[in-house]
Amino acid sequence: MADDKSTLEKILEHNREFVDSKEYDHLCTDKYPNKELAILTCMDARIVELLPKAMGIRNGDAKIIKNAGALISHPWGAVMRSLLVAALEFNVKEIMVVGHTDCGMRGFDPEHLLDKARKFGITDGTITTLRNAGIDLDGWLRGFDNVGDSVRYTVDQIRNHPLMPGRVVVHGLVIHPTTGKLHTVVNGYVENVNLLETPNGASSNNLVEENND
């Protein structure tokens, strides 16, 4: 017999069992991250459990922020605001930007998504109105060509934000979405020293190649 319950019904049913059995007891913590860490990563379903396990992150250890591609598309957007709140209000001293190989945002074409929007009833008139209002839809929706470049760009956006305290160390990593293996793109400890020693904070770190190894 087919299960005709909706996704919402299934979740609420599970939730009742979860609360009634007090499975939350071992998860109780407070709002301040134990590791004084914030992580910006991708919303990819493959790393929902994989990333915390691969990084040794337990409930209460870190503030975790997710979006498509682990990108900061605007310095005054919600992602940057969340990282600033984490650093200024919740004692976060380190931020890790964690992209991943085989990311759906690699080579993502904005026009492809707009075509999907049209198929769901969004009119060309609406898209034209947004563009005429000065909204850079192509820039806002565009992905990246290389995950290493993208991670480094996002690290720089965070580190150079005028409201981000200089004490906050920002790292850049890439995780494999199957094995959980991490590659370092930006070692924030080293680069913070470089920023003090060189005019432009240049680094010799190699960018991660876009593959699934």
Automatic annotation (TrEMBL):
InterPro entries: Carbonic_anhydrase, Carbonic_anhydrase_sf. Coiled coil: none annotated. Keywords: Metal-binding, Zinc. The keyword Metal-binding applies. Zn(2+) binds at C42, D44, H100, C103. Binds 1 zinc ion per subunit. Its cofactor is Zn(2+). GO terms for molecular function: carbonate dehydratase activity; zinc ion binding. Signal peptide: none annotated. CDD domains: beta_CA_cladeD. Pfam families: Pro_CA. The keyword Cell membrane does not apply. SMART domains: Pro_CA. Belongs to the beta-class carbonic anhydrase family. This is Carbonic anhydrase. It comes from Ignatzschineria cameli.
